[in-house]
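Listing S7. Sequence submitted for prediction.
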Amino acid sequence: MKDFIPKDFQAPFSEQDFIIEGNQQPGEDSIELDVLFIGAGPASLTGAIHLAQLAKSKKQNIEIGIMEKADEVGGHTLSGAVINPLVFKWLFPDKADKDFPFRKKVKKESFYLLSEQKTFPLPVPPGMKAKGCWTASLCEVARFLAKSAQELGVNIFTSFPAEKLLMNEGKVVGAISKAYGLNKDGTKTDNAEPASKIFAKVVVLSEGSRGHLTQAYLQNQNITSHYPQTYALGVKEIWEVKKEPDNIFHSIAWPLDSKTFGGSWFYPLGEGLVSLGLVVGLDYPSAQLSIHDKFQKMKDHFLFKKYLEGGKCIEWGAKTIPEGGYHAIPNRLSGDGVLIIGDSAGFVNMASLKGIHYAMASGYYSAETIMSAFDKKDFSHSSLKEYDQKIKNSFIAKDLYIYRNLRQSFHKGLFSGLIKAGLITLTRGYLPFDFKKSQLQEDSKIKRQVNSSHFSENERMSKVNAVYLSGNKTRDKIPSHLIQKAGIKKDIALFYEKMCPAGVYEQKGDQLIVNAPNCIDCKATDILGPRWTPRERGSGPNYKIM
């Protein structure tokens, strides 16, 4: 087969699959709230906490709820992570850093360019410096925030995946959960439960990276962005080691080639644990590149091996990251009865490799906007657009604007990208000038080269063993949640097999085999392959320290 474009082999995305329009009204079996956050990540938990604090200070009774698809808060939450504690101090001004669920304070950091046999130290880029930050497990952070939210009366509905938005004449009025207990053929098991409708005056979309409801709403409202959103896939492991490094470090180049954007991290977590991972842009040109295998190979480099020898991997996971930056943020983040926050909005700064405090800040600003809407008793777009202005005036927009062209500067390769990144740093973002929209494409429209040299053998950890270490709890007999286009050919099947870090896809002869229960909801498939849709409650990973 000749080189191909993944988009040509994807099933089309349709908002109609995820939005129920019409005269949606609460019934006997529905739940009525004032505010509904979708997804229990740091952004929504921050928003719920701050809204509850504001309502309490004004002696108002605002019923707040959060829908979360995992069995427990944190079960689907993953990040490196190095955290700026800024928004924690906004939320809890009477607490010190030691009172938060952080691991180790960043005191020293390093940055390397790697070849297969050598390590070349480089100055830490100014935008990447993590002074005042802490390493952390985002699972633990989410559980800490959830406990704080519940103490303020916030309702957290775990095992409650949101499948569709409810809308009345363009206004978002709620969401409906995914039905539970179906067999592969769609028939009901003895434990089957119908979907539930939740209605609210304001719905906050905080689904994380590549949220299907956010995509549906943006399409429904014809909301676009200046640059297309692009993504990276991060594969991560937690190890028990005999000795931790005294610093955090990052690397670029090997095991990736100069045409592929990406890099690694290695963070000490204390208590004999380290976090390490590899992040790779999903615009990679090779049809045969396996990020999972590259990560496994990376661990044989002496920079990592000296810490990992004699240790043990205890947890594994993967997640996509929105990395398009400032110009990839949707032109509008509010509407009638709805706000978009966190990774759903694309608040990630690739220069600093940070997004958590931006996500939390967006949740904080959403709470202030919603409180103002309650004061005015107006939940229309004319009221909620105050949120867009808060974001534009915030440090989120200011930080992301400086590095608005950083990720796009690497679309012609590593070394030209490093030169442009240096210009961005020196000129505070003035150079290089913005790209024309026609110069940039979404990841699925990038041509993939079939005859390339990325057939790597992985002798460390299989994808099956990796999925086991994610704590995957999916029933084997649920209906497949992955929507594939008919007639997938051999080379495309192999591309999917290599792309997925969890072994969901296998190329056997001329067939594509889909092992849907293996899926860990990283969303790489939705970006480059078969479309992802939500599954019944309790499906997917069950992260503990990610």
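Caption to Listing S7: primary sequence and predicted structure tokens for the chain studied. The chain is about 25% helix and 25% strand. Residues 372 and 383 are 8 Å apart (CA to CA).
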